Amino acid sequence: MLYRVRGPYATALAKIVLDSGHELVDLSKKLAERISMPQRSEVLPQATVKESDEDPDALIIVGYRDAVEAMLIEMLMRIPFISFRFEELGPYTTIAAKLRGFEKGLCIAEVHGSKIIVQDVGMCNENEIAIVHVVKPALKQDDKAVALPGAAILKDTLVLLDDGGGRVYFSEHIRDYDRKATLSTISNQYTRQGFSIRWRSTARSAPLEKIVHEIEEAVNEAKKLRDTKPSEPMILYQGEAIAYIKLSRPSKEYLDDVRRSIIPTTPYHHQLRTCGICEDAIDLLDTLSNYTNDRIMIKAIENYITRSILNKNVVLEHNKPGEKTIEIGPITIMNLMETELGTAIVGKRKAQKNGIYDGLDVERKSGDIIFTFIPFNNWFIIHRYTDIEGREKGLYININTPPEICYNKGVIKYIDLFVDVIVVGNSVKVIDINELDKAYQRGLVDVDTMYMVEETTKNIVSSINTIRRVLGSLSLQ
């Protein structure tokens, strides 16, 4: 298979593609020099692997379905502690969708059990079958794909849209004036028939014979679809498929190691990149890593990161696979501690209103103090709830991936792993194990993560006395 890689993970991804026996094409000049390969800009990729535009902590693989599936399998075998979602209803996939009527002003349709939003339609008659194509896939469990009326035919160099618009669009990567003029001329006879054409980046260098052949082939296939009269929801023409891979901190550390096999790479390289730290600073750390050992680099970076947020307000980004991110805070970071549970950051906030604490099932009063204990290298975070006098109401121990601290943004982020441990008085309960099992069945967590959650939960339950002793040392100031 032929793959293109892009973005801050590109060097590590290139190594994975090559190690898996596949080929790299359309390399950036910098990457080609780094791995001593030709750019091969004239060769068309079957899929692209890159950072998600919407989430710097995620990869997407987008392209022809077989290429997406092949690389997803490689990623799942190689990168630890990831969650993923495969979506066959990718961009430019043409479907016969059953309309369900308007909901909150949006036309809702359904295919293969998935709901989609159909835009730019005047009528949305319930149970009517409409031919539409996907323009925005659903990347999270509760998201809906977005589709537009008409068929789409995907080729290497173009996408043909049977939308009646008669428009021509160019990829931003097609900049040569003469090539754009040539492509416009080729388009003319088809736009007059009502077809719209999106010229893909590969059209900038593809042979004209191939381009002409593909547009003729696409038009013939679109005309065949016009004669299709489906009676049930189905996929009529597979466009691109897309896979979404959520990376945890340990995943990024693995990618650091892969990158390090090609070029000097600092510990936390990919974490710093996705936090938006200045590239020059990361380049300097990469260079320094070639002159000292990882242990010293790790200690120095962790010390700098943790001390950079001391006495500042931060927000916890609680990312649960397949769901929307929840923000907790602001939390004031009041201490950095060396404890029996490892190096930890301690934060404090106050309850703002009366109610009941979720999970603990105990009364919440305005003014209650909530201490948050964040071990830097462990798979849990502890929230200790006390009244205004400091008397403990309970502990909520969240099982999650080790935290990533974006000190420049005032954000501490992690992936929630569904299971929690609740401690109220002498009662210790483990909750939501069934939610973890469901997540595994849906591909939202991998087997490595399942094992780590199981071991972490056992260790927490057997270490409650140690946890209480450590938390008892927290200052109430």
TrEMBL record:
A GO MF term: hydrolase activity
Keywords from the named record: Hydrolase
Pfam families assigned: DUF402
Highest taxon in the source lineage: Archaea
Keyword Hydrolase attributed: yes
Database matches in InterPro entries: DUF402 (IPR007295), FomD-like_sf (IPR035930), Ntdp-like (IPR050212)
This protein's record includes keyword Transmembrane helix: no
Domain DUF402: 343-465
Species this chain originates from: Ignisphaera aggregans
Protein name: DUF402 domain-containing protein
